[in-house]
Specification:
This is DUF6457 domain-containing protein. This protein is mostly helical. Helix content is about 75%, strand content about 0%.
């Protein structure tokens, strides 16, 4: 069985990534995001840290500083997964989408009325 360090080395080779990945830092960060934000936030957070580090050509010290900022952000997250606010936010978002769709339907109806009036005026 391949251990995590070997997996990361092989994956970096496969992806042609020259930078060493700090599996401890990424694992800790992913765990904090998982526990404080959402179960799938862990891998997404690690991925986005990698994207940010790569786009800045960041060295190990800069990556550690970014990871510390992200970890503090995740630890302070006030909407953890499974909280009742998730359901409230989902309902709120659903209501907002429904209102927007209703508004778009109303605009379409007005446009159709205007089109019919224009057609009638052209026929006269």
């Amino acid at each position: 069985m391949v251990n995590l360090h070997d997996w990361i080395d092989e994956l970096c080779d496969l992806l042609d990534v020259e930078t060493e990945a700090d599996e401890s830092l990424l694992g800790d960060l992913a765990e904090v995001a998982h526990d404080n934000v959402h179960p799938t936030a862990g891998p997404v957070t690690a991925f986005l840290l990698g994207v940010a580090a790569g786009s800045r050509d960041a060295g190990p010290d800069a990556v550690e500083r970014m990871a510390a900022r992200v970890q503090a952000f995740a630890e302070a997250w006030d909407r953890p997964a499974g909280s009742s606010s998730d359901e409230d936010n989902d309902d709120e978002a659903d209501n907002e989408v429904a209102e927007e769709l209703t508004h778009l339907d109303e605009i379409d109806e007005v446009d159709e009325d205007v089109d019919e009036e224009e057609e009638e005026n052209l026929l006269v």
